[in-house]
Structure formats: C-alpha cells, structure tokens
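Workshop exercise sheet. Pairs work together: one partner reads the sequence aloud, the other fills in the structure field after running the prediction. Swap roles for the next sheet.
Pair: D.N. / O.F.
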Amino acid sequence: MTEPTGRRERKKAQTRTSLAEAALQLFLDRGYDRVGVKDVADAADVSVTTLFKHFPSKEALVFDQEDDIEAALVAAVRDRTPGQSIPQALREHVLLTQTHAAEPRFAAFMRLVADTPALRDYAHRMWMRHEAAVARAIADEAGAPEDDITCAALARFALEARGLIQRHPDPRRAADEAFALLEHGWAASHPEG
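Structure field:
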C-alpha cells in the first residue's frame, strides 16, 4: 500500500488498520460468527458508523489488502524474469503465497477462512475479482488484444488453481501439475486422452 501523505489520510489509514487488526484478533479468539461489527468497533474505539465508512461489510474486515494483492499479481506477470513464461511466473506467485502458511498467525487466519463458509466464499470472490486485471496484464505482455479469450482463460485458470493447490496435501506438487497443464496444455500432459 502507498503511504498516506497528509495528516488526515494517515489518520484514516491508522483507523482502518486498527479496525482490521481488532477484527482479526476477535475473530481468531472467539470465532467469526460469535463477533459482531459492534464488538469490532468497540475494540478499535470507533463507532459502528465509522467502521462502515472504512469497510463495506463484516467479511471485508478480514481482507484488508486487496489493492496490494492485485498489484502483486499484475507484477508477477509483468516483472517476471527473462525467459520465464507467464504460467511459470503465476505458479511462483501462488507458491510464494503458500509459504506464508507456515507463519502461525497466517496459518490461524487461513484456518479461520477455511472453517467459516461466509469468509471462504468472500475470499474466493475477492481473489477472483483480480481476474480482469491479470488478464489485461497477460494480454499486454503477450501482445494480444485486451479482450483475448486465451489470456482471459489463462488468468481465470491460474487464479482458480490456487484453491486446488491450497487444499492439496502436497501444494508444491499440485502447483507443478496444475501449472504444467496451463503451460503445455492437456494433450501434452495426457497424450492418450
């Protein structure tokens, strides 16, 4: 996230951060369904009205860095190392996000999301909303028209692959196999069918 410059912007960013941190801590301690938005507002010492000025919903309190996520996905495509294909770059990015899973707080966050249907669905919707930006970056890098269906398909499949990879007992192997399919196509990975 870019650093806010003015005092007012810094105060708003600080309030937003306080709300997100208070929400996550309460959700981890008590469970998502046992915490109301008033509980979060009280913990951050703001009104419920102020909370909703910063976050449109209770679920949004958990996912505070969506702009950073989209920028990182687009950068994975645009800033890849010379000779690295777009599917390889996206594979590396997805695996990089998996490395955080070993951090205790992140692992607890991931369990919270996985165990809470509302958060699981919201997380999927939020992740997939980056599809258009990733597809545009792929098209730009490939020299294809912005509405190229193959670029859109690669973006969709690469983003959807993350969920399969996260649920697999061997995420690295799952990423290798899923992105090999994206890299080489079905015929190359399954010549018999």
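Discussion prompt: The mean pLDDT is 89. What would you look at next?
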